[in-house]
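dude i think i finally got it to work??
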Amino acid sequence: MSDAPRKREVNDARRKRDASPVGGEFRIGFLVHDVSRLRQAVFDQAMKPHGVTRAQWWALAQLTRHDPRGGMTQAELARLMELGKVATGAMVMRLEAAGLVSRRADASDRRLNRVFVTNRGSRILERMIAVGRELNGTLLRGLEPDDLDAADRVLTALRSRLRAQLRADGVTGD
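look at this
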């Protein structure tokens, strides 16, 4: 598509959005939330045969994203997942029973447990990554590279602004 028709299409979309009863400024939040929710539901279905719940795969992902070699304390995991320590402890117990994580006493403070992903947990994570890639391929197939670049820029800018707002309000948000 040449630039002139594309600009007309974008302007028409803006006019239509601005004329909507809800207003464009509110729709972005709804769309981002709804896309995220639906993507999670599809991902959950793909992971169901592996016996991993959303909370469990989220915990495994956090463990490997933030400190894959040294493990993480349950308190650190609770903070990252925005869960209480008791709920996190119960989840870690279920993950440990499933053979996906192990707990070991912290080398410098024996009162603390560090949580480590096991080999079995790593295999589940590899499957999660493969499912995520397949899902992204399906979702993004047929979309124009320029549109994907624009979506990436906009969402990255929104995330940065929201994080800055949280910091300004004295809240840490990752």
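The chain has seven helices and three strands.
im so relieved honestly
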